[in-house]
Amino acid sequence: MKGLDVRYLERLSQLYPTIAKASTEIINLQAILNLPKGTEHFLTDIHGEYEAFSHVLKNGSGSVRRKIDDVFGNTMSSRDKQTLATLIYYPKEKMDRIKREEDNMEDWYKITLYRLIEVCKCAASKYTRSKVRKALPTDFAYVIEELITEKADLSDKESYYNAIVSTIIKIGRAEEFIIALSELIQRLTVDHLHIVGDIYDRGPGPHIIMDKLMEHHSVDIQWGNHDVLWMGAAAGQRGCIANVIRICARYGNLDILEDGYGINLLPLATFALNTYKDDPCSCFQLKGDSGHSQNEKLMDIKMHKAISIIQFKVEGQIIKKNPGFKMDDRNLLHHIDYEKGTIEIEGKTYEMLDKNFPTIDPKRPYALTKEEEDIMERLERAFQNCEKLQRHMRFLLNKGALYKVYNNNLLYHGCVPLKEDGSLKTVRIYGSSYKGKGLYEVLESYVRKGFYALDAKEKERGKDMMWYIWLSVNSPLFGKDKMATFERYFLAEKETHKEKKNPYYNLLEDEKVINGILKEFGLPTEGTHIINGHVPVKSKNGENPIKCGGKVMVIDGGFSRAYQKETGIAGYTLISNSYGLILAAHEPFESTEAAIEKESDIHSDSTVVNRVLERKLVGDTDIGRDLKEQIADLEVLLEAYRSGQIAERV
């Protein structure tokens, strides 16, 4: 039997059958190593805010505007630069408005095309021609490639390039060409996108965001607890289903389920109207302004209460079924005195704000009524059989994970569970102990089992684990001692609402602790960073997202409109380019209409977190490491050809 190395070289020789082809590939790969590294864009805690997400994606957190500044410097006014930037973000919509105001569109097309070509050249300059070619729109691929590879000193071809531009205008293809160039600039400006968790909940468009991400050329996702909640719902886990519906109802976003995913909520609505017909459900008012009519709001409020009661029941069943979760303290329905309307928690009695519980049997408080059981059975089937939802969840599974190490950055959504002294907290998962990286990996394995395991018991455990990840004190995606949903609804006393954070969040400035986390995930303690979100940074109170001298960046600043009053801003995003790390703090996004009409880009204050002395190249990245391994393998193949160990396939 041939040795493994020889068999591998023979396989490699099928791809590079001659000395010439292997040599050419080595030259190509070596050249790529010396290109500037691509720009990475980090976003987190989008929470369904589609318009703001879309705009930040289009402008690359200011990267497109920086490209325009690089190209035109002081030769173009700030106003003209902003108009050009807006055109790149929204080419079709902006041109529709310009056509109503501009007298000489032919001149405008010519000037604009030349400007866009220059920006496109700049954006393409850090990539190989092959990579740019793959990104080109099919209809204009040849023409764009000719224009953006034009060399300034080739005066002989000047009339050739001018003729291309003039002909594009003459044959009525200028608008389509401008759209194609603008979208190409957007694509080339950001090479890779990281979503560091929480695409879902609160905002109105997570399903639209998922469609957008599925179209993106290069993306990875670190799951947030809200994402795992939706994954559990799609897998048919009842606690997750109830939470998903409750949150949608609370924020007036049931349209996401009904219109976005086609999930029928009529049985729940009918049940809620009948059961709580004369109940004002005052504890279940909606958050934010959904824009719904008064009747629609009343319907949502009653559905909100109905699904909340169902949630507390099914969660009680999950906790009883999984004693290893050690969450008995979160079962509260049996602590209610239904006659007095009070509840005892930790030895203290509180008066309930809502005392109407027509579906709860005090003797069996966690049992669903026949109608509730029928509703949950229907909802299970609806979630599991929704093709669009399943497609989105498969994308999360394929492109996502609980954590990722990428170019010396450690990415995760929440935290690494720690003890008070900063050491890693040990957690029991189905009878075995895990901590740090091992905890992340076992939890991720159970998420995947919840969808793919053949063993019925393991699949059921995986489903329940997704609910556990959503709200457990030991979940790295939650990181608090409890999720006080019940207390916030039913008790006025703020002391009961308090959710104590894991010690991790108080130790983010402790370099010894942070270095320990980096080592746990196999990273060096210098030149590396932890990037996470989950907890809104209250900038208005002076909180800083940059921790531990720049080793940690907490970049959830509040994309969600519901949190912007607390944070004072509309989110942090991060850019990693060949010059270093840039943190952008965004002001609230007004609307897409305002961005086009008023050219009101999201104002961002950028902070250089880390600037390198020497520009980073592809050779300094994870991709570079892989390319170096390919070069080494090809060099061995060359030696095998030259020594006669392997014959060329001529």
Give descriptors for this structure.
single chain, 650 residues, alpha/beta, seven-stranded mixed sheet, five-stranded mixed sheet, 17 strands, 10% strand, globular
User: Largest sheet, if any?
Assistant: 7 strands, mixed
Structural class: alpha/beta
First-last Cα distance = 25 Å
What integer value in Å does the Rg equal? 28 Å
Q: Mean of residue pLDDT?
A: 91
Portion of residues within helices: 40-55%
Question: Spatial order of the strands in the main sheet?
Answer: 7-3-2-1-15-16-17
| Number of helices, counting only DSSP H or I runs of 4 residues or more | 26
Strand content: 5-15%
Name the overall outline: globular
Q: Which residues form runs of ≥5 with pLDDT under 50?
A: none
- Please count the beta strands (DSSP E, at least 2 residues each): 17
Write up this protein.
The chain has 650 residues and is α/β, with parallel strands linked by helices. It is built from 26 helices and 17 strands. The strands form 4 sheets. A 7-stranded mixed beta sheet has the order 7-3-2-1-15-16-17. Strands 8-9-12-14-13 form a 5-stranded mixed beta sheet, with no helix packed on it. β8 (403-406) and β9 (409-412) form a beta hairpin. α4 packs across α7 (105-124), α13 packs across α14 and α20 (436-452) crosses α21 (456-471). The radius of gyration is 28 Å and the shape is globular. The two termini are 25 Å apart. The model has no long low-confidence stretch (mean pLDDT 91).
